[in-house]
Write a structure and sequence with these properties.
17% helix; alpha/beta; 2,3-Dihydroxybiphenyl 1,2-Dioxygenase, domain 1; Signal recognition particle alu RNA binding heterodimer, srp9/1; VOC family protein; Glyas_Bleomycin-R_OHBP_Dase; Glyas_Fos-R_dOase_dom; VOC_core; 4-stranded mixed beta sheet; elongated; 2 domains
Length: 138
């Protein structure tokens, strides 16, 4: 794992495209909902949208940008239906409640699951689904 100063040097990093020119709003939401810290932000030439942003959430990187339909021939379709971003955390109840207080919608209530996690899901205001869990045997 890379240090915070280095950023990611290996592994898999999710990279989200946020529709409607709302990437800056998404950064603010992820800070409130998941304790994200902003590593960097690169504005586009239009001064309104973000070409790139890098956040840290729970020690892992998340990258995001505004949608640029002019570079790909159309507008964003929204969050992919099959995508879930998973957070394995120290206290799922606390993280889940913070996400809801920040504006996430509960889509699966937190429950003690048969596989040994306390687990639930929320959907953020940008259409992305997040699962939040902690191990029950901690």
């Amino acid at each position: 794992m890379a240090t915070e100063e280095q950023g990611p040097t290996s592994g898999l990093t999710p990279h989200l495209t946020i529709g409607g020119g709302r990437a800056a709003e998404a950064i603010d939401f992820y800070a409130r909902a998941f304790g994200a810290t902003e590593r960097m932000r690169m504005p586009a030439d239009d001064g309104k949208r973000l070409m790139h942003a890098h956040l840290l959430i729970n020690g892992s990187s998340l990258m995001l940008n505004d949608d640029f339909p002019e570079y790909r021939g159309g507008s964003a379709e929204g969050a992919p239906a099959g995508l879930t971003l998973h957070l394995q955390v120290d206290d799922a109840d606390r993280w889940f409640e913070r996400a809801k207080q920040a504006g996430a919608t509960e889509t699966m209530a937190l429950q003690d699951m048969f596989w040994g996690d306390r687990y639930g899901q929320v959907t953020d205001p940008f259409g992305y689904r997040w699962s939040i869990a902690h191990a029950l045997n901690k």
